[in-house]
Amino acid sequence: MTKNVSIYNQSTSEVDEKYLEASQQLQLDKQTYGSDYIHLYVDNIEGDWLENWDWEDDLTDYIDAFYHHCEQGNYQFALDTLKACDDLLNQPENYEKGLEVYGYLVERLELECSKQTDINNQEILNEVKHRIFILQNKEQGGNMPEEMIFNMDEQKFSRLEYMKKLFEKIHNGVIRRTWKFEHKYKPYVEASETISGIASAGDFVAKFWVFYYQGIGGQYAYSLRIKNGSNPEEEIVSGNLDKFFFSLDEFNLIEEYLEKINQANLQNKVYDIDALPE
Questions:
Q1: How far is Cα of residue 190 from the mean position of the Cα atoms in its chain?
Q2: How far apart are CA 160 and CA 139, in angstroms?
Q3: How far apart are CA 228 and CA 203, in angstroms?
Q4: Bridge partner list, 184
Q5: 23-40: pLDDT as tens digits
Q6: pLDDT tens-digit profile of 228-260?
Q7: Tens of pLDDT along 136-190?
Q8: The model's pTM
Q9: What is the spatial distance between Cα 58 and Cα 88, in angstroms, rounded to a whole number?
């Protein structure tokens, strides 16, 4: 009776994306076309579909998609699916169901975070806890016991984790060609060199470099600065062995990603060359 989205014989990521898109499109069509949206999903519009229509399927479809994403370990998709049906979960009769699914997502994420440190999962976990806080507050009319309030600052992120997240975003962006990257290598005296890079996506610019001298009494320095739109340029880190503001972990991280990002950039150029006619 209804038109189904064909998502078989495809990769897991394609299935997940189309599953979420189909759920979101259903909700969007309802908001755009009102009751006429049914014409988009029902073939025999003049038949007996009305008598057999399941009016509870709307939220159920989202919940089914949510659990599917959780089982696949796609927690961002799972959260996005719940966010897509916010208007339904925020209805008083669905508060309990909302707390149930968000609570389930918290359990899954806390289990994953206990196995390995993943800043993305931790960010999702914090947002989920905040949404539980909102639902609980609505359900209880604002009179929440203190012990039920989640501490959103309980997980502190280190500067190193912040830097790695930024570099991963740049690296992936260069691979997808959504970021531009300029790499520079400048040798000085023997065994001394500076390696730098400028990455940009729109108005966001990241500048980072490392300097090292591997001779007697070796010297090391590094820096990471960002500029976001019209905001002033911000220094994220700056380290110099001579001035005692130096972290080997930060130095190694910048050095590592300068190489990784540059290799991704060069690979793109190789693809461009291969695409030229013989």
A1: 43
A2: 39
A3: 6
A4: 196
A5: 556 556 555 554 444 445
A6: 888 899 999 999 877 668 888 999 999 999 999
A7: 766 555 444 444 444 444 456 688 888 999 999 999 889 888 999 999 988 876 6
A8: 0.46
A9: 9
- DSSP codes of every residue in 95-159: HHHHHHHHHHHHHHHHHHHHHS--HHHHHHHHHHHHHHHHHHHHHTTT---GGGS--TTSSPPPH
Tell me the per-residue pLDDT of 84-127, one tens digit each, with 9 for 90 and over.
Answer: 888 888 888 888 888 899 999 989 888 887 777 677 788 888 88
pLDDT in the model for residue 28: 61
Q: What is the CA radius of gyration of the chain?
A: 25
At 48, is the secondary structure helix, strand, or coil? coil
Q: Measured between alpha carbons, how far is 80 from 119 in angstroms, rounded to an integer?
A: 17
User: How far is Cα 238 from Cα 6, in angstroms, rounded to an integer?
Assistant: 52
Task: Check: CB of residue 171 under 8 Å from CB of residue 177.
Answer: no
